[in-house]
Amino acid sequence: ANGHRVMTVSPRYDQYKDAWDTSVLVEIEVGGRVETVRFFHCYKRGVDRVFVDHPWFLEKVWGKTGSKIYGPKTGL
């Protein structure tokens, strides 16, 4: 990334140890409901990485995801 800045934006599928909570909350409408998302950020190997956090992406089981990316039930 010479001469410019690179950024990725992706769902927060895990509790990445380098990512910090930006304290930014945004309300968006999804399927007729208002959902609140927050953003986490880290800077690694010359890339700004922004993670969108919402319970749909991260199921918290004893502080870890438990390998369940989309929640406790599949196929819904």
Q: What do you see in this structure?
A:
- With about 80 residues, the chain is mainly β.
- It has one domain (about 1-75).
- The chain has no helices and four strands.
- It has strands at about 5-10, 20-30, 35-45, 45-55.
Write the layout of secondary structure elements.
Blueprint: E1 6-11, E2 20-30, E3 33-44, E4 47-53
Parallel strand pairs: 1-4
Antiparallel strand pairs: 2-3, 3-4
The class by helix and strand makeup works out as mainly beta
Let me know the average pLDDT: 80
Q: Outline the low-pLDDT stretches.
A: none
Kindly state the number of beta strands.
Answer: 4
Shape: elongated
Q: What portion of the residues fall into strands of 2 or more residues?
A: over 45%
Distance between the termini: 40 Å
Instruction: Summarize the biggest pleated sheet.
Output: 4 strands, mixed
Q: Write the element-wise H/E pattern from the N-terminal end onward.
A: EEEE
Counting structural domains, the number is 1
Number of helices: 0
Helix share, percent: under 10%
- Going across the biggest sheet, name each strand in turn: 1-4-3-2
Work out the radius of gyration: 14 Å
